[in-house]
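Quarterly update, task 2.4: S-adenosyl-L-homocysteine-bound model.
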Amino acid sequence: MKNKKFYINTIGCQMNVYDSEQIAERLQRIGFVMENRVEDADLVIVNTCSIREKAEQKAFSFLGRLAKMKREKPRLMVGVCGCVAQQEGQKIVERMPYVDFVLGTQAIERLPAAIERIERQRCRIVDVNMAQEIQETADIPTCGNPHEISRFVTIMRGCDNYCTYCVVPYVRGRETSREPENIISEIKSLVANGVREITLLGQNVNSYGQKQGLCDFPTLLKRINDVEGLLRLRFTTSHPKDLSDGLIAAFRSMEKLCHHIHLPVQSGSNDVLARMNRRYTREKYLEMVANLREACPEIAITSDIIVGFPGETSEDFEQTKALIRQVEFDSLFAFIYSDRPNAPSGRFKGKVTEKEKKQRLQDVFDLQTGITQKIHASMKGTIKEVLVEGTSKKQVAENQGRAIDAVQWTGRTSGNKIVNFIQNHVSHVDTGIQVGEMVRVRIEKTFPHSLRGSLITGDSGHSLAKGDESYAA
Ligand code: SAH
Ligand code: SF4
Ligand code: F3S
């Protein structure tokens, strides 16, 4: 299997990004090398998402492309992983003769063995077994890209919440938390490889550890906060029904915990929330927002909204808009409701028309755009700590009538806002700033999706490397 090339197409949420990294890791261990062009790969895997019909269609249209490729290159190996693989299983191999293997969401550790068997026996494999426990590999994960300073770490799998619209409990299985020791040793090894920011992943991190009697989520955060060399800690997603006082207090006391929470509200109508089985009310949600802001006044709050849930009346939708106006989220992801296999809401009465759903989506978008712009505008003139993630592009800037090279750096604030800033430099040898460094930037211009500013130099509070003189002030 030496020097065979693999290509992974990842669709869906951060969990899938993490899983694709795990897949890549395992393939590299058995001699495969990563390939960035799908046409040049010997093995193509599509890591699929089933959250909405559109995501599923995306996977099938990519598979259609692979069918054509396989006709021209019969030795190409094609695999389907992730949530659609779990959901459809056997049906995929029956419908698509060019697919060699289908591995469900809990079968990643069995991937190397599956590939070996296919190569040996020229067979096809479907493995959608749901393991009872999380299989931990003793090996230390490696950092794929040496310039990657931000990585995801899954702390729990599955979901037990059964929101009535959602496919996740069916495709990811029961909620299971990883042992804190395994999580911490993974984070330590990532940090040793240069990672500076970790985002912890779970469908509902607030219930971490409770089922198995491990430590609770704030305690896990505290232990990770103590990892030397780590600069920033984030997490997603936090279910409002389980948001604890301990977690709210963590925003006050943990210096590495970023001032951002993604707290999906889904709807502003109590009637719709009840039929979604979310188990909180709009009043309770608003109280949580107030408590979070009291503990951490500058906290950025983002959320998810579903429009057109079955039975959502125009009054229900008005309540969602009123809640958005009241909270003033930093940003929102809004989705058109989509019926999903096994999800009970598919059988609920009162389907909203496609036209109405689209109009409601547009209304949420217009409303939120105004709010985001207002929040961004209020940041003008403030100084933000930015973790440098890389250069976004090389530009030629005019400086006193003379064209000089300038590098545009990009990073994010603690509140997860993208900040671009230009660093003029005369020397190509020494650019001063390092990826993974924390710098201070004065915000000068604001846009709907990003901020622009200039580097603050020479003042206290952060390390400035040599070459400071060349910074743009
Ligand atoms: N576990 C997370 C959500 C994961 S899914 C949580 O509970 O917050 C991400 C988002 O997709 C959800 O928050 C929801 O807004 C959206 N979503 C899930 N199922 C959907 C469906 N059937 N139709 C439209 N949007 C959906
Ligand atoms: Fe889906 Fe609800 Fe679980 Fe989130 S908490 S993954 S929306 S069932
Ligand atoms: Fe999609 Fe599965 Fe994530 S359904 S959103 S990839 S958990």
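Highlight for this quarter: Residues 51-52, 165-166, 203-204, 237, 239, 264, 266, 304, 306, 335, 337-338, 340 surround S-adenosyl-L-homocysteine (ligand 1) (CB under 6 Å).
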